[in-house]
């Protein structure tokens, strides 16, 4: 996880940091920011939008894998359902905390990137966030 200095530029009608944070609300603002001209030209907003889409994609993959793990755990008598609930709650809590961290860091104007997702976001956005 790397963090760079805060940003305070204005992009279109929104501040750069607010647009970057808005991209994390759902995947729809991220797609819109990648399509609209003043936002897609801004590297801060573009990287956060791509990182948001990759985070959503990773969340879907983890949800599918979690579903398969829960189905396997349910075959274990007595302890299986308890482990399934515990695993589901832990993964859901980790996802929500990760999403909140991404949202807050973008709102603060910091160029925060997750270890794998952030590096892929840099590649797919065309411009990096720096070293």
Protein model, in words:
With 131 residues, the protein is mainly alpha-helical. The chain has one domain. It is built from six helices and two strands. Strands 1-2 form a two-stranded antiparallel ribbon. The longest helix has 31 residues. The protein is elongated, with a radius of gyration of 17 Å. The N and C termini lie close together (11 Å).
Strand order of the largest sheet: 1-2
The structural domain count equals 1
**SS element count, helices:** 6
Tell me the overall shape. elongated
- Count the beta strands: 2
Classify the secondary structure makeup into a structural class.
Answer: mainly alpha
Percentage of residues in DSSP E strands: under 5%
Radius of gyration: 17 Å
Taking the alpha carbons of the first and last residues, their distance comes to 11 Å
> What oligomeric state do these chains adopt?
single chain
Stretches where pLDDT falls below 50 for ≥5 residues? none
The helicity comes to: 55-70%
The ordered string of helix (H) and strand (E) elements is EEHHHHHH
Report mean pLDDT, rounded to a whole number: 84
- What does the largest sheet look like? 2 strands, antiparallel
Q: How would the blueprint of this fold be written?
A:
Layout: E1 10-11, E2 14-15, H1 16-22, H2 27-35, H3 37-40, H4 43-73, H5 79-107, H6 115-125
Antiparallel strand pairs: 1-2
Overview features:
6 helices; 3% strand; 131 residues; 69% helix; mainly alpha; two-stranded antiparallel sheet
């Amino acid at each position: 996880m790397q963090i760079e200095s805060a940003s305070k530029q204005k992009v279109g009608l929104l501040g750069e940091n607010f647009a970057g944070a808005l991209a994390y609300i759902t995947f729809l603002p991220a797609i819109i920011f990648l399509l609209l001209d003043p936002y897609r030209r801004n590297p801060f907003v573009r990287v956060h939008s791509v990182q948001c889409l990759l985070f959503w994609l990773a969340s879907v993959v983890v949800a599918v894998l979690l579903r398969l793990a829960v189905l396997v755990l349910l075959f274990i008598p007595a302890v299986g359902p308890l482990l399934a609930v515990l695993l589901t709650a832990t993964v859901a809590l980790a996802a929500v905390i990760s999403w909140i961290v991404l949202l807050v860091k973008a709102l603060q104007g910091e160029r925060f990137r997750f270890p794998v997702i952030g590096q892929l976001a840099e590649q797919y956005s065309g411009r990096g966030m720096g070293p």
